[in-house]
Amino acid sequence: MAAGGGTKAAERPYDLVVLGASGFTGQFVVEEVSRAAGRGGLCGAALRWAVAGRSREKLRAVLERAAERLGKAALGAEVGVLLCDVGDAGSLAAMARQAFFGEPVVEACVENGANCIDISGEPQFLEGMYLKYNERAAEKGVYIVGSCGFDSIPADMGVLYTRDKLKGTLTAVESFLSVKSGPEGVCVHDGTWKSAVYGLADEDNLRKLRKKIGYAPVPVVGAKLKKRGFVFYNQEFKEYSIPFMGSDGSVVKRTQRYLHTELEETPVQYGAYVNIGGLGSVIKLMFAGMLFLLLVKFNFGRKLLTKYPEFFSAGRFTKEGPTQKQMDGTSFTMTFFGEGYSEGQDPQKGKPNVKICTEVKGPEPGYIATPIAMVQAAVSLLEDAASLPKKGGVYSPGAAFSKTKLIDRLNRRGVEFSVISKPEV
């Protein structure tokens, strides 16, 4: 998603452009932008926005779907339609000038002065864009913010929310994700599955990339957070948990590094986990996980995994994606257990003496919560410009939005942040 801003923002015909609007996730983003535009737009003025993609017919169909979902006669007259192809640099530049599908879009936005919001959750992509475009984006005054969907706004902003609600110094947080489904079950589009396949296959390149970036180590403040095992029984939830395999951990660490080095804030240690259920679920997961890790190492194995996602994921990932009933019956809860030191206590001495529990709850994560998070991030980018980092660059969500009203906006749209138990000494 390209958002207005950067250079010559006032001259642009659109505040916001949804690129890839006719894709599976894009159709839900269009619907969410339509809602945002219908609630008063930008700073009280009408939100000027457009959809972009390769096919005018498909884009029109997406607008018709959104209008039907929102009970409107049509959206076409009030929404621009831009034709562009990610393989055509010229068309991408034209799209960016009027307001993420990989590096060409990032490059086009940076060079043409358009801010960019993306839901990509692959650390290799996110950190690669930081290495290649951070300095240029800073020069152009452009903000490039990735992982603005379910990966990883609930986690990244949830840690900051927990920190802000603790009266003292927060030094460590563990989050536990639970996903509940209705009688129709849970299903995910296979685009997410493909990202996982290629992401794991490319782990060696991620290590090399991080060496090139030369990250300064983030200091450990307070008691060191202990790593959990691969599978463990969680007494808090009375079920088994495993480390969360998404990008949350790497995104939160990037945010904490930025807040420490640039704003001199105390860095928070972080561990991300997901609850998987009882012993039967553990056995199924271990079998599927071993098969997945074996196949992902080889080219032929990756071809099998991406060709038959439904078979290798036991029906969880399909080429068709979830039905509306499946989405309507699914919700998520991310619970944060934080520990730290009360006011006046030195975090470098002694054990943590205060704890806090917070929660982020929301609707189906992939195609309802993700568009909400992405669109509200874009609105924050447009409306909270004075609260963004002083210079442009390639940022994680928490680094970009820690001083904005993003959490308030998310709360109003049903992605709710709350304190479950107040700090206890």
TrEMBL record:
One of its GO terms (cellular component) is plasma membrane. Keywords: Membrane, Transmembrane, Transmembrane helix. The chain crosses the membrane at residues 270-296. InterPro entries: NAD(P)-bd_dom_sf (IPR036291), Saccharopine_DH-like_oxidrdct (IPR051276), Sacchrp_dh_NADP-bd (IPR005097). Gene3D superfamilies: NAD(P)-binding Rossmann-like Domain (3.40.50.720). Residues 17-145 form the Saccharopine dehydrogenase NADP binding domain. One of its GO terms (biological process) is glycolipid biosynthetic process. It comes from the Eukaryota. Belongs to the saccharopine dehydrogenase family. This is Saccharopine dehydrogenase-like oxidoreductase. It comes from Furnarius figulus. The lineage of its organism: Eukaryota, Metazoa, Chordata, Craniata, Vertebrata.
